[in-house]
Specification:
Number of strands: 28
Number of helices: 14
CATH topology of the largest domain: Glycosyltransferase
CATH architecture of the largest domain: Alpha/alpha barrel
CATH class of the largest domain: Mainly Alpha
Distance between the termini: 54 Å
């Protein structure tokens, strides 16, 4: 039996790791130690990759939702003989509340089965496969617990009934009547370094975890349009945050394909500075900026002192620099889309827009960075200075091209934004000489982009200097405040991107891109707002937002013809795009006048 489609899954998170559960009650992905650690279930990438399902043995219909303001998932199975609810959650540290949740999560997955009506026959199948399917565990049932050990990893499953073992799998059938509850508690620990976990009352622990999530959601006081949508998306971003450091992973998964059968299957379980900065802006929109100083402190610590080398673009969740990519030969890949990769060679790339993203996020959150910590000030100054030295060089661009470096328009706009925000900080960041240097270079970059980025034959700003190819990344020009959306050339560019790269508002990055890139679709919405077309932008926003699954989760891409979600899941970039587009619609001038992009 296959693992189902990408969008069939719901996200569980505990501030350190993530699990994915499909509509049929199967846990198909979990890396319990932390987001980028080896998996214990990865059926999403290969049917032999390990799973844990609990579901009716007979035909069922499904309704599911998160419990209010949480990432605790409740799935209701309806059968001919009754209804049963399955509640799933990764536990938070007991008693943790607010921004403290997730920092010391115990690595425990709780699944609680409750009979709602009638009597429903159920089946449990538990089949862990450690280290991306490479290791098959020894399963031992003793005193109400099933222990699975393989090398450095041990899982202990506490169950209310015996779990018969056959080889490396345990399977049991049981019935649940109305009012009956059966709870299963699966705990992870390193085999040789920690004692067995203390017994946990699964039902009470789930209630405490629910209270923890709700205490965090209480910090979100968004007052704009689409409030429930923004609130849910902000919670997803919190679920993709590694709480001990504050790093935000780009997605919970690795190697989910951009195209079925294609080979662009990358590992996104790391923290990109671009994503991190955009996430900070999205959380600012969602009225949750209180951790800005701490999170910028993490960036300063991870980046370290900047010298002549390119600014690192990404890190492991605790600031690791070396993310060397390797292939996992034991897994076929989602829908036979290989390779399956761990690590990401993009860590070696030069991407010139990244300093601009960080400085722009700092500028937006400037009130929360006052007084500015010395290491944060040094970081921002160094980013501005390196931008001055390197902006003329080609780079890999924000789409992380692996063939050749180019002079990407969006990269140059990012360089302009870095120096523009540095200049705006004034004497909080530099002295008079610094400001003069930054201003002169900023203006030179702008003149260069306006001259070299425009292609008269195409009638648009194209993806790179000298190119005739449209690229949706140029939609960032008005969003960054580089050029008003009402500028004649910018308006022509927006129109051509919509005409040639978009279908129903779902925007491909370039012609020939196998699917629409979700955040680009939200960029188009923002550009239309900035051009004064608010009503059309709102209709497009609602159409794009509707491609989310029944839990409001978005992958990296979507097939504009079928609506199938593709790429790693859930994708922080996509949720960031939705939040910022909702805010753009909120702040649009009441008289319909065009905006200029980033606030001053």
């Amino acid at each position: 039996m296959e693992a189902g489609d990408i969008a069939a899954h719901g996200l569980l998170a505990d501030g350190r790791s993530a699990a994915l559960v499909d509509r049929a009650g199967s846990v198909n992905w979990w890396c319990p130690e932390r987001f980028d650690a080896p998996s214990v279930f990865c059926r999403l990438l290969d049917v032999a990759g390990g799973h844990w399902w609990i579901r009716p043995t007979e035909h069922f219909e499904v309704h599911r939702d998160y419990l209010p303001d949480s990432l605790v998932l409740r799935t209701v199975f309806r059968t001919a003989h009754g209804e049963v609810a399955l509640t799933d959650g990764l536990l938070l540290e007991h008693g943790a509340r607010g921004h403290a949740i997730g920092c010391r999560s115990p690595g425990i997955l709780v699944r609680s089965v409750q009979g709602l009506s009638g009597t429903v026959p159920m089946e449990l199948s538990y089949c862990p496969r450690f280290e991306y399917g490479r290791r098959t565990a020894y399963l031992v049932w003793r005193d109400g617990e099933l222990t699975a050990t393989s090398g450095p990893t041990t899982l202990t499953l506490a169950a209310p009934m015996p779990l018969p073992v056959s080889g490396a799998e345990a399977t049991v059938r049981f019935t649940v009547g109305a009012g009956q509850r059966e709870t299963f508690v699966l705990a992870y620990r390193p085999t040789f370094h920690e004692a067995a976990p203390q017994p946990v009352d699964g039902s009470d622990a789930l209630d405490d975890t629910l209270a923890g999530w709700q205490s965090l959601a209480a910090h979100h006081d968004y007052q704009g349009r689409y409030p429930e949508l923004v609130r849910r998306n902000a919670l997803v971003l919190q679920g993709l945050t590694y709480a001990p450091s504050g790093a935000v992973v780009a997605a919970a998964t690795t190697s989910l394909p951009e195209e079925i059968g294609g080979d662009r299957n990358y590992d996104y379980r790391y923290a990109w500075l671009r994503d991190f900065s955009l996430t900070l802006r999205a959380l600012w929109v969602a009225a949750c900026p209180t951790e800005a100083n701490r999170l910028f402190g993490w960036v300063a610590s991870a980046v370290g002192r900047i010298g002549e080398e390119p600014v690192p673009i990404m890190f492991g969740v605790e600031g690791e620099r070396d993310l060397t990519e390797r292939r996992i030969e034991t897994l076929r890949g989602y829908a036979d889309s290989s390779p399956v990769l761990v690590g990401n060679e993009a860590w070696r790339q030069r991407q010139l827009d990244v300093p601009g993203e960080v400085l722009d996020a700092a500028w937006r959150l400037r009130d929360y960075l006052d007084p500015m910590r010395p290491e944060v000030r040094d970081l921002l100054r160094s980013l501005a200075d390196q931008t001055m030295r390197t902006w003329r060089e080609p780079d890999a661009g924000m789409w992380e091209a692996r063939d050749a470096a180019r002079h990407y328009v969006s990269s140059k706009v990012g360089c302009w934004a870095a120096l523009d925000r540095a200049v705006r900080f004034g004497d909080r960041l530099g002295d008079a000489a610094d400001l003069a240097r930054w201003t002169a270079t900023r203006d030179e970059i702008r003149e260069t982009v306006l001259r070299e980025g425009w292609n008269a034959e195409v009638g648009a700003y194209t993806g790179a200097f000298g190119s005739d190819q449209l690229d949706a990344s140029v939609l960032l020009m008005p969003i960054a405040g580089f050029l008003p959306a009402t500028d004649e050339r910018m308006r022509a560019t927006i129109r051509l991107v919509e005409e040639r790269l978009s279908r129903g508002g779902l925007v491909r990055r370039w012609a020939g891109d196998p699917a629409a890139f979700t955040i680009c679709s939200f960029w188009l919405v923002r550009c239309l707002v900035l051009a004064g077309e608010r009503d059309r932008a709102a209709a497009m926003f609602e159409n794009v937002a509707s491609v989310a699954n029944d839990l409001g989760l978005l992958a990296e891409q979507v097939d504009p013809h079928t609506g199938e979600q593709l790429g790693n899941f859930p994708q922080a970039f996509s949720h960031i795009g939705l939040i910022n587009a909702a805010w753009e619609l909120t702040t649009a001038a009441s008289d319909g006048a065009a905006q200029t992009g980033e606030e001053s």
